[in-house]
Amino acid sequence: MNPFSYARVTTPPAAVAARTQQPGSYFLAGGTNLVDLLKRGVVVPEKLVDITRLPLTAIEATPTGLRIGALAKNSTVADHELVRRQFPLLSQALNAGASAQLRNMATVGGNMLQRTRCAYFYDTSLPCNKRVPVQAGPDKGQPNGPTGCGALGGYNRMHAIFGADAGVAAPKCIAVHPSDMCVALAALEATVVVVGPKGERRIAFRDFHRLPGDNPRQDTTLGADELITAVEVPANELAAHSTYLKVRDRASYAFALVSVAAGLQLEGTTIRQARLAMGGVAHKPWRLFEAEQFLRGKPATLATFQQAATLAMKGAKGYGENDFKLTLAPNSLVEALTLATTPA
Amino acid sequence: MDINPKNQPVDRVDGRQKVTGSAKYFAEFALPRTAYCVIVGSTIARGTLDQLDTKRAAAAPGVLGVFTHLNMPAIPGWDAPVGGQADGPPPQPTAETYRILRGTKILFDGQPIAMVVADTFERATYAASLVKATYTRQTPKTDLNKHLAAAIAPSIPWMKDYSRGQAEAYKTAPVVLEADYVVPTEVHNPMEMHGILAQWTSPTSLLLYAKTQGVNATQRAMAQAFKLDPRNVKVHTEFMGGGFGMGLRTWPQETAVVAIARQLGRPVKLVMTRSQMFQLVGYRPHTRQTIRMGADATGKLVGLVHEATAETATYEDFTEGTVNMSKFLYACPSMQTRYRLVRLDRGVPIWMRGPGEATGAFALESAMDEMAHKLHLDPLEFRLRNYSETDPEHNRPYSSKNLREAYERGAAAIGWRNRPATPGSQREGEWLVGYGMSTGTFNAMRWQATVRVVLQADGSLLVQSAVTDIGPGTGTALTIIAHNVLGVPLDRIKVQYGDTSLPPAPTQGGSAIVSTVGSAVFDTCSAVKQTLVELATRPGAPLAGHQAEELALADGQLFVEAKLATQVAVAELLRQNQLASIDKTTESKGGPEQQKYSFYSYSVHFVRVRVNPRTGVVRVTKTVSVADSGRIISPKTAASQMIGGVAGGIGMALTEEAVLDHRFGRYVNNNLADYHVAVHADVPEIETITIDKPDYLLNPMGAKGMGEIALIGFAAAVANAVFNATGRRVRELPITLDKLLAVS
Fold first, then answer.
1. For residues B375 and B362, what is the distance between their CA atoms, to the nearest angstrom?
2. What Rg value do the Cα atoms of chain A yield, rounded?
3. CB within 8 Å of A297: residues ≥ 6 apart
4. Where would I find the FAD-binding PCMH-type domain in this sequence (chain A) (predicted)?
5. What confidence tens digit (pLDDT) does each residue in B10-28 have?
6. What number is the ipTM of this complex?
7. Topology adopted by domain B15-21+447-589
8. Which chain A residue's Cα is nearest to B45?
9. Which of A53, A236, B176, B294 is a good FRET partner for A39, with 20 to 30 A between their CA atoms?
């Protein structure tokens, strides 16, 4: 990695100011992804702004739900009594992610901002439309790699089946967002609280991550000078019937091929409300709005789940090695809904 | 004598050192003024290096040298010496030549194009990132599947085509199976990174801290490369964080580091990166196999053909015993094997645990399961009907074979009777359940080693051998052998190993070390015992008049077995004779009986799996592995070794595959997050059983190897269990869930 400067800040405004003053700077929190990116030469910073001392670690009940500080550790959130009781979906999703060691380091804010695990993004000798080219020059590293999407026509077992071609004639990037936590937060309709030079802003979770379109370099709608301070999760009636199902190539420490966050509110055997999101299938946590709407008022039966799964797959497209996800994704949705409605 | 009458479960003698961090691995050795070397690898797999800009790297802080094809110091001997011995001859040079940092031709992805040396590892790493290369790219050939037509027969006699009986007799059988099986490229991925620390202690002498499975092999290779007297090359590898075969040869980058250390006049250390571990220290080669098998209505094999085609480099032919076990495992009158290579733009493979046979067993033992299904026979019964009582390949007896008992005990332990006869018919909740089994086998060998044993007047014992302990517990086994021959208490025995200053031993590999070095310890301790007996029974000595056969040793006492009271302390005996010690060094190897018998170890693996019918997820829920590997010296470390083999086998079966993007000839999962070895959550209860019957034809302890057989065959057992659970036959490893989607 290249030589860079390092600054430690202790207040959110100071963090924002430090980053605003120096465009080539990055926030450092748990570092579980950023350090990888530095070592691989994907991120070539001029400065790291260490935000780990900011007072943003609280997890607290609010009149409308739960507020989680951006610097709360993944493992702390997963094990928190309020989270386990009221938002088991979030707890399950967090515990499905990474390894115990990584969850002990990773923060909630950092988890939301982790970059894709696409192999082409990490190898600067291979083509990628998502890597930001770096200008050559003293201590600025090399231009980091050719453009184009390596995964198209290449190794795309892990890649997107939804949304890569939205708004463009042909996909420029088929990478997926790797987080488990965010899939649960999407289903839970969380709100992201951020602060920037102009003050605080609130972003609905569904609008926080974006599809690649013609600008795959941009993962989120967060401004370059903004800092995530908290996530708010509204209270819900889904706790009794929620499941996070992560389908992957090994039982732990592997990214999702497909994951499903399913939360249902049942009245007897009738579905009053459904919240569904998938991971491992798109450039962002993929909400299944149409399937949710279909399930409302329907009986919680296998036939209903299968119909919902068919609806959920509208617009899905495989790119070769990930074609199996066109079968795996609906099957996983049925499996998750079955688990969510099976008495423990 | 029985080498371990009490079957003591002895703790690993170096366990405390390993878990407390006091065991020193090569990279932990510190020498004054050490410089750090970082490799810059090619990012193309085939072509030419046009320009290499090293100016910025050379000017970076702390940089001591940037070595490329333009300024690489000379290596007077040849610079890619090959050592090692696991399962066949070393890789053979072809018409193409690979010499590190010589010329501009790129033969494989990751080929070193520069080695950057600086005063710290971090500065070397940064400077390496500043080296800029431009290439003329050629389309790389890295896909075995696309170049099968270019397959060649290796020129190595050991690998020639084999035939007995009638050619293609399988075709005449009433029931015929023809199927292709694929094992992908797999990478050893030990925890410890590869590398070397080299210091020239004089213009003609070298000190090396290496990651090698054989210090003597590295010593010979470096002496040859630098035209030194081997006695002036000292190599130290006491501990290794996993070898699995990747340390079976001296790799070119190690030799280059030695040359650079001489040029710079200071010690140089290389610790490779994880991604370089995929490129520069070998791998299990991607291999396609075809099995053609015919059986009659009584379940007897009529004919068998086993063909394998494996990838290798353009510059060396690497071969392994992929088709070997098919020649003798079953009593099949007619059989043929063929082994072919495809030279690709790849680094050269190397033996990986259970080399060759692990690949071959996946094909043979999957096919046996398939044929059993066609015959409506229980797959265990089918194997028993074709059990070979003598070696049909060499027409000679087996030295020992207790495979039948292994089958019986394994079947009982897994509950084989619960296996559903009809695939896809048993469930646990919504999950499908299945049982599978397979057989593994590997040569049981004994090579040559020298051991020194020193019995001190205070009753303590020193045992010395250059052998490296790559993790199986060699030091523990040698301690137990010495303890049982000489009766010295375990805590008074010190085994020194892993250094060329000690008596020479072969490279740790091929499951041959307990048989080889253990026998040398046995023989040398026996010579010490002989001297003790002579001293004790001389006229006037404490046990005068007694015969050697009457005497035994235990707890530091030499005594008459029939009369426990008649004894003398070993320490006392030495004092009486005014001896400071009894010091013996002997060379030990197998005798001519090794030509009269066929020597093999055997394993049987039974597994139970669950398969999710919606998602295709496979979970191994129980395994039983049985080893027929002669007398067990160290029950505890033997069980550990089997457990490790099974964990590796689960990875081979379900998750491990090194993936290349053939457009670039470059790995796209070259890290431990994306290359999936089995993690704890993938590994269920593992039951291990040892038959534990001595084979005294191989060595005086009756011990045979078990490192390889712990893995060999395991993947087939899983594939067979998955078939039993789902009715879906997966012939291409790993058995990932996409191959099982919608199984019900």
1. 20
2. 20
3. A270, A271, A272
4. 1-238
5. 999 999 999 999 999 999 9
6. 0.96
7. Aldehyde Oxidoreductase; domain 4 (3.30.365)
8. A125
9. A53
